[in-house]
């Protein structure tokens, strides 16, 4: 690639990168602001200024960590992080356990109606959560799971499994069936061929499902807000808007810190496995 091609690439990609990175920059700057910065309109929200409103490079002299300390010492934020992690891991496990055999069966064993069934399953994912809220709420109440993380672990697979099944079905179709047929000829069972041959080749698709399902668990708000009412049992998405807004004052520093902290690991995870993530999403588009 010549320097002109590189320059053209950066010219096209650069503005998008700046726009997408700006929320992270804004949150990072805001989380270390003092309360005085919020009250003074002369203090730009994008940089650090001194008491006279002049820009200062030595921002560490005007930054504070009191709002980050407040999160971890005076709120249930550590519990929210732990609850989100536990729910996410449980839902990811359930999703993989059910979506992998379902996707494989639709791709290899269902015959001509497998594609139609896959599309029907994907359409279930498109149903708005507000329509499913009432029956799922009744189910959670009858099972006495109110204010329990088990309610979220039970409900979240209702929208992670359909999309994961559809995604894995498309990815399984890109794997040559000759690989499995060779294993079957050698005496392997269908289950052993799936475990030894198909799953290792399907790692990009499986990784895509893991990242997708975990991200949905972190970002989901409606069910987390309605099924969990005690602060100690909340997840990050429901705890931040419910417990960190104190009276009529929005302390944006703690709010920004609370949203940025879980976003950084997810962003790094996406970046680390970006190639496999794209491959997993586009794998079923060529068949």
Characterization of this structure:
By secondary structure, the chain is mainly alpha-helical. The protein is 72% helix and 0% strand. The protein is built from 15 helices and no strands. The longest helix is centred in the N-terminal third of the chain and has 33 residues, at 77-109. It starts with a helix and ends in a 5-residue tail after the last helix. The model has no long low-confidence stretch (mean pLDDT 82).
Net shape: globular
- Briefly note the structural class of the backbone: mainly alpha
* End-to-end gap: 30 Å
Radius of gyration: 24 Å
Low-confidence stretches: none
Sequence of secondary-structure elements: HHHHHHHHHHHHHHH
Topology, number of strands: 0
- Please summarize the sheet with the most strands: none
Which bin fits the share of residues in helices? over 70%
How much strand content do the residues show? under 5%
- Roughly what is the average pLDDT, rounded to an integer? 82
| SS field, number of helical segments | 15
């Amino acid at each position: 690639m010549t320097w002109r091609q590189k320059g053209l690439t950066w010219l096209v990609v650069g503005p998008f990168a700046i726009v997408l990175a700006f929320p992270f920059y804004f949150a990072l700057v805001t989380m270390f602001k003092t309360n005085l910065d919020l009250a003074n309109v002369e203090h730009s929200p994008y940089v650090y200024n001194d008491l006279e409103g002049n820009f200062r490079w030595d921002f560490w002299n005007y930054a504070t960590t009191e709002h980050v300390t407040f999160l971890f010492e005076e709120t249930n934020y550590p519990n929210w992080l732990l609850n989100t992690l536990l729910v996410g891991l449980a839902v990811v496990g359930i999703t993989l356990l059910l979506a992998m055999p379902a996707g494989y069966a639709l791709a290899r064993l269902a015959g001509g109606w497998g594609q139609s069934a896959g599309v029907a399953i994907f359409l279930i994912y498109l149903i708005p959560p507000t329509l499913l809220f009432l029956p799922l709420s009744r189910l959670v109440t009858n099972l006495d799971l109110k204010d329990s993380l088990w309610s979220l672990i039970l409900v979240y697979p209702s929208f992670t499994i359909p999309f994961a099944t559809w995604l894995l079905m498309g990815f399984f179709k890109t794997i040559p069936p000759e690989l499995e047929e060779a294993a079957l000829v050698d005496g392997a069972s269908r289950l052993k061929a799936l475990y030894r041959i198909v799953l290792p080749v399907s790692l990009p698709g499986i990784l895509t499902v893991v990242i997708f399902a975990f991200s949905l668990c972190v970002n989901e708000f409606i069910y987390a807000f309605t099924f969990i009412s005690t602060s100690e049992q909340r997840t990050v998405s429901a705890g931040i808007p419910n417990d960190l807004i104190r009276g009529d004052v929005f302390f944006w520093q703690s709010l920004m810190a609370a949203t940025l902290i879980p976003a950084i690991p997810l962003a790094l995870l996406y970046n680390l496995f970006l190639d496999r993530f794209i491959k997993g999403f586009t794998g079923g588009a060529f068949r």
